[in-house]
Protein: Permease of the major facilitator superfamily
Organism: Streptomyces griseus subsp. griseus
Amino acid sequence: MENARSRWIALTVLCIGTLMTILDETIVNVALPVMREELGFSQGGVSWVINAYLIAYGGLLIFAGRLGDLIGHKNVLLLGVSLFTVSSVVAGFSQNAPTLVAARFGQGAGAALVTAVTLAIIVMMFQDPGEQTRAIGFYSFTFAGGGALGLIAGGVLMQLTTWHWLFFINLPIGVVSVILGWKLLPSGKGLGLSAGLDVSGAALLVSSVSLLVYGIVNAEHNGWTGMTLAYLAGSVILMIAFVIRQKKAKAPLFNLNILSDRDVAGANIVQFLVSGGLYGSFFVATLYLQQVLGYSPMEMALAFLPLTVITALGSIALSPYLTAKLGERIGLIIGLAIFVAGALFLARTPLEATYAMDVLPSMLLLGLGIGLCLPPIMSLAMSTASEDEVGVISGLTNSTGQVGGALWVAIVASAAGSITASRMDGGTNERESVNAGLMYGSLVLAGALVIAIAVAAFVIRKRSVDTPTDGADAKATVHAV
């Protein structure tokens, strides 16, 4: 795809498809009480509207990325958008709980196929370092801003219509994405299945990550019980078996040597922690606005709007500028420092707050930090990607983010819940107790982000901004998706 205009139009199509899948991680949150009442979910069972999506999504990302390397990234992306769109329609027409949960599983699987290969396609289309930085900035905003936009869209749609339209809205977006993607995205046959699809390794990996995500979401709802720890232990055992399998396989699903590069390994660790900060801050801010300040769903949605706008500014405009002037590592550290400041400001959580003085500053700091962090993380994570591994590396990057987000939300929920329960047992009223719990939850997030700063400073290598990276050299040899 030589025409620059065509590349940027194709990037828009990719971002719209990705946005559709990211929105559905959070858009249903505001409708869960209504779904529980109308479809007959139990109090605990309604959480499967979220869990089914997360388990399928997190479990399939690396496998989906490798599948893209073998049969073509465009083919996998179009298959994913189609599956997601059909599943959305089924979810919208659901008349009972099992149908909705099954549809949400289908949405999660489709989202994994889309997300795993999108970054790979972007890296292949934009091989000029400057263009690639800007393109990843646009994609990063889609990835980071989608969660906040989901809360906004969910609040608006629930105010104007019924929960069914949270899913039906995906139909026109999905159809347009498939049509434009088919016409505009670069074609590529991939390596071919004859290059080797390690079925045993895939089964072990998908089982391990799915069990890990299930254990994490179980911890969020039921605490760190013996059963939760059993799930997590089972996940570790399966992952060890996967690593052993990859060392022996003639055509491994995942080349373990990928993680021997400091920048790639460091970027994935930071991605794990930053995604925890991203989803964890959404979790804390949502509960604070609703349970402490008493915001309605629409008011809460509008409260997140400045965060979304400043995230766009950070990822699309400021991050590429900082990368060009200072390099990815320094730009990342600056973004992380601002992100920490946002988490600490969120920890203030006064009981009697005004939006302008107490809520807006944390939203702006969080949004700017997120916007500055994600583009360099993704660039560094993809820095060694070559044609035959770009999909699986993209899947790895998204998988570490997904698992990190789920794990840190569970940790924050556990910490906040423990403090809340302790305060209530001591006679403090519910509102003050919840507020105290959320304050400690924000401090947990700040601690995770401080660790991310240390990793960025001491693991990721300092690069010269005047010379191309090794990854850029590797990418220059790639000519097709």
About this structure: Residues 198-252 form one domain. Confidence is low (pLDDT under 50) at residues 466-481.
